[in-house]
Amino acid sequence: MSLRISALKYVEEIKNGSITAEEFVSKTIERIQKVDPKLHAYLSLNDKAIEQARAVDKKIKSKNVGVCIGMPISIKDNICVKGTKTTCASKMLEDFVAPYDATVVSRLKDQDAIIVGKTNLDEFAMGFTTEFSAFGPSKNPWNTEYVPGGSSGGSAVAVSALECIASLGSDTGGSVRNPASFCSIVGLKPTYGLISRHGLISYSNSIEQIGPMARTVEDVAFMLNIIAGIDSHDNTTVDNQKQDYLKEINAGVNGKKIGIVKEMTQEGVDKQVSSATNKAISNLEKLGASFEEISLDMVKYSVAAYYTITATEAGSNLARYDNLRYGYNFDLEGYEFNSYISKARRNFGPEVTRRMILGGYVPSAGHAGRYFLKAMKVKSKLTSEINEALKKVDMLLSPTVPVLPFKFGEKIDDPIALFLVDINTVTANLTGKPAISVPFEFSNGLPIGIQLLGKPLHDKQLLQAAYALQNTVKLPEVPI
Amino acid sequence: MVSKEEIKHIAKLMRIEIDDHVVHIDRVQKIISYFDILDKANVESEELDVKEQAIEELRDDKYILYDEKLIQSLKNYKGSYIRAPKMS
User: Fold this and answer.
1) Å between A434 CA and nearest CA of chain B
2) Which of B:47-86 have CB within 8 Å of A?
3) Share of chain A above pLDDT 90, in %
4) What is the pLDDT of residue A217?
5) Residue A326 domain-assigned?
6) Bridge partners, residue A397, by sequence
7) What angle do CA A189, A403, A158 make, to 5 degrees?
8) I need a surface site. Which of A36, A267, A284, A376 has the fewest CB within 10 A?
9) DSSP alpha helices (H): ranges in A266-298?
10) ipTM
11) Looking at the partner chain, which of B48, B53, B57 has a beta carbon nearest the beta carbon of A376?
12) Cis ω for the linkage preceding A282 (within 30 of 0)
């Protein structure tokens, strides 16, 4: 039995009786125990996973079993799983036990998925390397001296290193796609509203989405089929008419027009990343797609707009952490109300502390016009530009990240260098569009991913193109 | 450039203690200076993209009684109330 199998293959093998859920989940837990001390993908594990898998095996016999049939899935630790710690990789929430399941989690459980554990992230999902996790970073399984990307770095590592079949991350500015690219897996940031955010601990509500991460495009489509769709707990969700994202996934790209975003493919892009992008274009051309260059002038301001908007929303969202309703053991006695909260908040890590200060500054009286309002106008103009572009072409292509994965400590002291890592990913969030990262090539053993960005609610067409691109390459197996 | 005093003032309003963290002030200054790039975007005349949603499209404003267990999961509570430090 191989842990390398896809979600679809897992379902097939369970159905034909060649494996049982208990065997597969047990082997997955053994794998986690073996490799996770080196990789640190997980913050906590479900100690009832094997027992739950055994119960699913019994359901198989009664023919009343969900489509996941005991599949081991991990969940980013900013998504609530009832009765388990949900820490957001923060000392502030070190002891917080979620009192309910996020909608995405209850939908997976309804389909008999086994939640094997909660995965590492940058504290409150603020970062792109997992170096800001209060519990230590995750390591890239392709080379453990390198960052795995973030903030959903733990999820990407767990999927890549065969510590689960699939995972759920969250993507506010690239936090699913960036680690997917750095760890050579597939990551989808769906159209805004396609997946319920109920139970996702809020960072920047107006642009963030939960996204599936897996080793193949078809597995991401399989996950999307389960978790997408309207939810009364999240008013921003849209009715997807129960679309089947797996059906016709092999539709191909023949006749599709694809835009190459000038501002995401030229200046500041590593040579190797640029060469991989050109190869991806050539591969898709051979399959019948045509390409034209598209310019989105606002992209050069998108990172500043993104950080202004997200800091503002984060400043408001983080205000709930007063250590009175959620928090850690810190005695009230001897403190006045405000000084207690200030002292308790010393448990926020450095990046979260800075984002709170920024979140107070950029929308404040006297500064809002210069920063927040202008950022919102950039967002608006970027949306108009991309909508115009998507009238001419079916989707856009760029490298997911303009640089190769980098070593720990390389960018952590330079906030601007770190910000610019996400120049190619924030546009999809600011404009609500779906975007996917597809693993495409390696340079000196380090993965390179290609991003496709589509029209809103055309996630299915995006997955079809991603599937076509995926099948033009054969990539190596993870060395760990 | 935004002054150190201004950053300290904002931090105080956000109930964040940064007195002994000079590195925060330096980085926040750097980041805010980077945000000045927005001045070059030439978007003054741009209309804001406002989304409208009819009230009837919103979910019902239902009152759901909290679960007693929620209160018991708090670190400091008395009866059905959250305990907090005194306000000056």
Assistant:
1) 19
2) 47-49, 53, 57-59, 67, 69-70, 73-76, 82-86
3) 94
4) 98
5) no
6) A260, A452
7) 50
8) A267
9) 271-286
10) 0.92
11) B48
12) no
A365, amino acid identity = A
pLDDT at B19 over 80: no
Q: Is residue A193 part of a domain?
A: yes
At B15, list the tokens: 């109930």
Burial class for A351, CB neighbours closer than 10 Å (0-12, 13-18, 19+): buried
Confirm whether A409 is domain-assigned: yes
**Domain CATH code at residue A204:** 3.90.1300.10
Three-state SS at A134: coil
Residue A349 in any domain: the answer is no
Parse chain B into domains and list their residue ranges: 4-40
Q: Chain A residues with CB inside 8 Å of B70's CB?
A: 99
Instruction: Give the residue-averaged pLDDT of A277-295.
Output: 98
Tally of domains in chain A? 1
Asked if residue A386 lies in contact with residue B54, where contact means CB atoms within 8 angstroms, the answer is no
Task: Tell me the pLDDT tens digit for each residue of A198-249.
Answer: 999 999 999 999 999 999 999 999 999 999 999 999 999 999 999 999 999 9
The SS3 of residue A63 is coil
- Structural domain containing residue A128: 7-251+404-470
SS3 A438: strand
Active site residue A76: yes
E-strand ranges in A243-338 read: 257-261, 290-294
- pLDDT tens digits, residue range A69-123? 999 999 999 999 999 999 999 999 998 999 999 999 999 999 999 999 999 999 9
Sign of CA dihedral A62, A63, A66, A67: positive
| CA A172/CA A189 separation, integer angstroms | 9
User: Does pTM top 0.95 for this prediction?
Assistant: yes
What integer pLDDT is reported at residue A92 of this predicted model? 95
CB B18 to CB A357 under 8 A? yes
